[in-house]
Design goal:
- The structure is a single chain.
- The chain is mainly α.
- The chain has a domain of about 25 residues.
- Helices cover about 55% and strands about 0% of the residues.
- The protein contains three helices and no strands.
- The longest helix has 26 residues.
- The protein is flat and about 70 Å long.
């Protein structure tokens, strides 16, 4: 007879192979997300001599790393176009909910 607690611990422990696979997946996702940020920053949409434009007249809109709860999702790359679309869709849904509520309740 073996101890049930020891058996439970052994069954729930992750193996070295599982940890390695998880790390490879995490690193590849980070690499993909960082390349997305780089592609959006240095994409072909820039006009010629864009770096000569006066930056002080523009808003402070720079790419930033995502918070961990949004990593890997559309909202993951803070300051990117995909995050902007994600939040705009959420705001549009909330606006529609509010307008529906106003229409029902007056």
């Amino acid at each position: 007879m073996s101890n049930p607690i020891t058996t439970w611990i052994k069954k729930s422990m992750e193996t070295y192979k599982d940890r390695e696979e998880w790390m490879v997946e995490r690193i590849s996702e980070g690499s993909i997300n960082s390349q997305k940020m780089s592609d959006e920053r240095h994409g072909p949409f820039k006009v010629h001599d864009h770096y000569r434009a006066e930056m002080r007249t523009r808003t402070n809109f720079r790419h930033r790393s995502a918070i961990s709860s949004y990593a890997g999702s559309e909202a993951g790359n803070a300051g990117s176009y995909s995050a902007l679309n994600y939040y705009q869709e959420g705001f549009a849904k909330r606006r529609d909910e509010i307008l529906t509520d106003i229409a029902k309740n007056g």
